[in-house]
Amino acid sequence: IAGNYSESSNITAKTLTVNNDAIVSIPSDYNVTLNGALTVSSGSFTLNNNSNLIQSTTTANSGNIIIKRNSNPLSRLDYTAWSSPVTNASQYLLGFSPSTLTNRFYNYNTSTNLYNAVASPSTTPFAKGAGYLIRMPDNAVASPSTEVFTGTFMGVPNNGTIQVSLNYVDATHGYNMVGNPYPSTINAETFLTANASNIESTLYFWRKIN
């Protein structure tokens, strides 16, 4: 793609290259399905909320893209569990949600079954496949009103097999907070089947009610 593009249609191709400073924006609810790699040589490539990059091979991608994901309608004291679909060692948790109080970024402690505050969200990047509990910006509307927070990720889109180490202490201390590391939805049943020898067959999802 060598020119600006924002068509409301799906794209299916072997590979895709963005160059010539083209501005490419995939509208919500449309998919880009590739057999090979996505390469952003120049310009920009944006996946808007509910659009997906789906790849059938493990080829590594090249160049940064922008991925936007919307939270549920939330109020100031509500949380969302986030996971990054890109690799970017310079995208820190606080940079992702700069108006969230610095003591309101959490990861999960398997040993205690409690959420631990991230010590330094201003210098902590998203780890692949990890989930982070992040409160709404402190300037968000108060309950009972709600608003949507748009999380913006920027980096090289993840692809291929991503392994996440899980912690296990005992039968009641084996919960882990993981996140989808891909720029597309995943099939929960396929995920459970593929990991049947490693995890129990139950997934727990964080809900919006604080």
Jot down its keywords.
210 residues; mainly beta; five-stranded mixed sheet; four-stranded antiparallel sheet; 28% strand; globular
Write up what this structure looks like.
The protein is mostly beta strands. 5% of the residues lie in helices and 28% in strands. It has two helices and 14 strands, in the order ββββββββββαββββα. The protein has helices spanning 93-96, 188-194; strands at 11-13, 16-18, 23-26, 31-34, 38-40, 44-47, 52-55, 65-70, 79-82, 86-87, 105-109, 114-117, 132-135, 150-157. The strands form four sheets. Strands 3-6-8-14-10 form a five-stranded mixed sheet, with no helix packed on it. Strands 9-13-11-12 form a four-stranded antiparallel sheet, with no helix packed on it. The protein has a three-stranded parallel sheet with strand order 1-4-7, with no helix packed on it. A hairpin with a 4-residue loop joins strand 11 and strand 12 (114-117). The longest helix is centred in the C-terminal third of the chain and has 7 residues, at 188-194. The protein is globular. 23% of the residues are buried. The model has no long low-confidence stretch (mean pLDDT 95).
